[in-house]
Each structure stands twice: as C-alpha cells, then as structure tokens.
Amino acid sequence: MLLSAGLDSAVLAAAEARRSAIHPIYISTGLAWESDERAVLNRLLASSPYAGNVERLVHLSFTVEDLYPDTHWARRGDAPGFDTPDEDVYLAGRNIVLLSKAAIYCSQHDIGRIALGPLAGNPFPDATPQFFSTMGAALSMGLGHTLTIDTPFAHMRKSEVITLGSELDVPFALTLSCMSPQQGLHCGRCSKCRERRDAFAEAGVVDPARYAAIPIR
C-alpha cells in the first residue's frame, strides 16, 4: 500500500494489517515536507498496531523537480493559507506518479493489489473511481501483470476515518497531516491542518498533534 505519515493512510494501514501482512511503500518526489513525513513514518510503523504484520518499509523515488519549479509552493514548503480551497493545493498528476512507480515495484515482487487512501469528496481528476479503474487496467496491460487499485476509504469522510482509527488504536500523535511542517510539528496554518482540526472536532476525538502555531479558529 502507498503509505505516507498522514492520518488517512495510517488508519488504512492499521485496517489492512488486521486482514493480512501489508507491504508499505513511501515514494519521494522532491516535495518540501517529505523529510518530516519519513521521520514520522518510521516511528509510526514501529508502534502498535503495526508491529508484527507490516513488512519492511520500501522507499522509492520519482522526482517531480523537473515538473514543478523551485518557486512552486510544494517545493518551497510554503503552502497556501488556512482557508484556501482544495484547488489551490492541487498537484497535477500526483496519483499518476505514485501509482506508476508502485505498480512497477509490485510487478517485480508478484503483488497484485495496491491500496491507497483517498476519501469521499476528493475533487481531483486523478482520484475518481473511473480513474483508478482505468489506471489499474492500463498498468496491468503495460506491465503484463494483473493489478487492482483499491481505495477502501473512498466512501468515508475524514471524521469517520478518525472514528475508525480510534477503534483500531492508531497512534494519532504519530501522524502528520501538514504541508508545511516545522521540525516535525504541524504548522497550524495550512489547509491540511484545518481539515485535520475540523475532522477531529466532528468526530468528537481529541487531536493529540502538536502545532507550531495555534490553528486559526
């Protein structure tokens, strides 16, 4: 499964690990927050409920540094503001990049399913059921290896994912849902921090994350 240190993929990993061993893949593409994500992810996977049913974390790379200029907010680490719409943080082709690299790895290791964690309401063109179905078929054809792309949380809101994560004892304090992390802390000023704050409030669960700045109310 494609795994970042984010809340959604952390809960998905815990849910998947209850059914069978999972093969987590982290793909670096050259974006500003990746070093913070990798540090948090290593601590996350060493904790319960992952220990014992998660294979070694695989690090792959697929640079977008030649597609996004140095001035791009995702390269600078200066994310759009707290109340900006989803469209302002769209990264063109992100799921195409991640799935393509993961699929090649899967074909080399006889893995037939890739799981990832987009949620209901995702507005981007590379996060629709039609895209995932078509991408799975194209990758299967191009690699000569049958692959299914599975999105188990596609019908869920983030607050529902948090409720499930609570039931699975996911260590939310070891997740990172931020586009401008400050030495491992959530910045408290980007739209991902807003989404996280609002979802925990809706779920009625205390957010244990530490924020570099108090999230704007």
Distance between the termini: 34 Å
Catalogue the unreliable spans: none
Rg calculated over all Cα atoms: 17 Å
> Beta-strand percentage?
5-15%
Strand order of the largest sheet: 1-2
**Quantity of strands, as a count:** 4
Tally of helical segments? 7
Bulk shape? globular
Helix content: 25-40%
Largest sheet: 2 strands, parallel
Secondary structure category: mainly alpha
Averaged pLDDT: 93
Order of secondary-structure elements: HEHEHHEHEHH
How would you characterize the overall build of this protein?
Helix content is 37%, strand content 6%. The protein contains seven helices and four strands. The strands form two sheets. A two-stranded parallel sheet has the order 1-2. The protein has a two-stranded parallel ribbon with strand order 3-4. Helix 2 (34-45) links the parallel strand 1 and strand 2.
Write the layout of secondary structure elements.
Blueprint: H1 7-17, E1 25-28, H2 34-45, E2 58-61, H3 73-76, H4 94-108, E3 113-115, H5 129-143, E4 148-150, H6 158-167, H7 191-203
Parallel strand pairs: 1-2, 3-4
Features:
217 residues, two-stranded parallel ribbon, two-stranded parallel sheet, mainly alpha, 4 strands
In short:
The chain has 217 residues and is mostly helical.
